[in-house]
């Protein structure tokens, strides 16, 4: 199974949890690519994912299967050539758009599953991964909120959440989907820039069951849970954001203990990485 993550150093905790969760739920070999970049943005220095995290994860993965692999790919140079100028000031870090450069990385295979770092695997995603993509550039699940408000087809909900995507890289390279998406991010300011660009420009996308990207609340059949920002309406309207590495709030706010064993293992590994840095 080929899996892609993207981001700067802020994804490290989520990356560890997400990869660990995959290992616990699949039986096939796991090959992970992490696209990262380093840049200066709005007076701040954005640091890349660090090598020690990748090394620790590689050792952990090979404890499951000696054939498993993880690679860190610095795409700073590619990013600098096509800076998404119109969207650098949005609430989303510029590094969330790094997946749009995956078509430029020769090592990325023809079929790969992209995951946000706040996606936790709860069941075996093999059925999602192994589906036939011959006629599709991407496959994913409708965005829980955006699916109602943003749509290419006015008569059908077709706006996918990009936190879990199965990507036919062979077709994407031929159609230029990501190349055109990068161009759009450079020229047009958008809400959720790369997600909006992909949805707008994809000529062929497949809508999959909600269980493969549960964005709201854990369900009995959930395969992958995505810890997105959600709305709460009682006792007042507000947004709630809880990430899987924020364990106290996971328990207190979401009342969720589903992943306690996984998070215990994550805590041991992450603390050992931090300790070795000192």
Oligomer: single chain
| Main pleated sheet | 7 strands, mixed
Number of continuous helical runs: 10
Helix percent band = 25-40%
Radius of gyration: 18 Å
Mean of residue pLDDT values:
91
Strand content: 15-25%
Q: Could you list the spans in which at least 5 consecutive residues all have pLDDT below 50?
A: none
Order of helices and strands: EHEEEHEHEEHEHEHHHEEEEHH
Identify the overall geometry. Answer: globular
The number of distinct β-strands equals 13
Strand order of the largest sheet: 5-2-1-6-9-8-10
Structural class: alpha/beta
- End-to-end span in angstroms? 35 Å
What features would you describe in this structure?
With 278 residues, the chain is α/β, with parallel strands linked by helices. It has helices at residues 12-23, 51-64, 76-81, 126-129, 146-149, 169-175, 177-187, 193-201, 247-252, 260-277, and strands at residues 2-6, 31-36, 39-41, 44-46, 69-74, 111-115, 119-121, 138-142, 160-168, 205-207, 224-226, 230-232, 238-240.
Structure characteristics:
globular, 10 helices, two-stranded antiparallel sheet, 7-stranded mixed beta sheet
């Amino acid at each position: 199974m080929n899996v892609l993550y993207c981001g700067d150093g802020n994804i490290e905790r989520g990356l560890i949890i997400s990869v660990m969760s995959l290992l616990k739920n699949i039986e096939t070999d796991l090959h992970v690519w992490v696209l990262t970049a380093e840049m200066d943005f709005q007076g701040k220095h954005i640091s890349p994912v660090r090598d020690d995290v990748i090394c620790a994860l590689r050792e952990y993965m090979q404890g499951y299967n000696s054939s498993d692999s993880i690679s860190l790919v610095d795409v700073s140079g590619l990013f600098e050539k096509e800076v998404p100028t119109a969207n650098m000031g949005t609430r989303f870090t510029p590094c969330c758009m790094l997946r749009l450069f995956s078509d430029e990385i020769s090592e990325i295979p023809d079929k790969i599953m992209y995951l946000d770092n706040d996606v936790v695997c709860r069941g075996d995603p093999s059925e999602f991964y192994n589906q036939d993509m011959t006629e599709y550039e991407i496959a994913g699940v409708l965005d829980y909120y955006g699916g109602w408000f943003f749509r290419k087809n006015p008569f059908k909900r077709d706006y996918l959440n990009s936190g879990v995507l199965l990507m036919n890289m062979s077709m994407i390279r031929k159609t230029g989907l990501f190349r055109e998406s990068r161009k759009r991010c450079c020229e047009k300011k958008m809400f959720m820039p790369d997600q909006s660009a992909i949805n707008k420009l994809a000529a062929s996308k497949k809508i999959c069951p909600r269980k493969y990207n549960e964005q709201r609340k854990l369900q009995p059949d959930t395969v992958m849970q995505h810890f997105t920002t959600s709305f709460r309406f009682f006792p007042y309207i507000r947004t709630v954001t809880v990430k899987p590495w924020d364990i106290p709030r996971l328990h207190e706010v979401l009342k969720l203990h589903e992943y306690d064993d996984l998070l215990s293992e994550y805590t041991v590994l992450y603390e050992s990485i931090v300790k070795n840095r000192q």
